[in-house]
Amino acid sequence: MSKEKKKKTEQVEAEVEVTAEAEPTVEETPAEPAGNPFEKELEAERNKFFHLYADFENFKKRTKTEKEGLYSKAVGDACLEFLPAIDNLERAVAFAEDSSLKTGVEMVLSQMLKALENLGVTQYGEKGDKFDPNFHEAVMNSDEEGVEPETITDVFQKGYKTETRVIRHALVKVAN
Length: 176
What we know:
By secondary structure, this protein is α+β, with helices and mostly antiparallel strands. The protein is 55% helix and 16% strand. The protein is built from 3 helices and 6 strands, in the order H-H-H-E-E-E-E-E-E.
């Protein structure tokens, strides 16, 4: 080959290399949506919507839980105000002699207990139950024979609770 042909071949090869470098490859091309130029903006708005929707759903769940908690607290606080009257009615029934007055007091007591039951409040703390510090408050201990340890031997004041909250602990005497 002549020197001239060699130079031309080298120039052509150099131009081919330059052209190959200048053209973007398939891997380098950004993924542009074909057709709609607003596709990216639409996707961003769609993501915003889904995040907002999820936040709203979480808000609904949180407020529902808070409402239930507030209701339970309100019921408990209101019942706590009536419990001394119920205790006095129970004492009156326990010490009254058989008469029409005792029958009337029993009827009023049963109505009040039924009202508490309708609100979801239950009464607990019976003689013979197992002591549970979550529900009972031991104010006395006793060394009685024939009774298992940690068994309630006497109840001084009944306890009241809802499904989620103890309104008042039962005051009890517990066997050692």
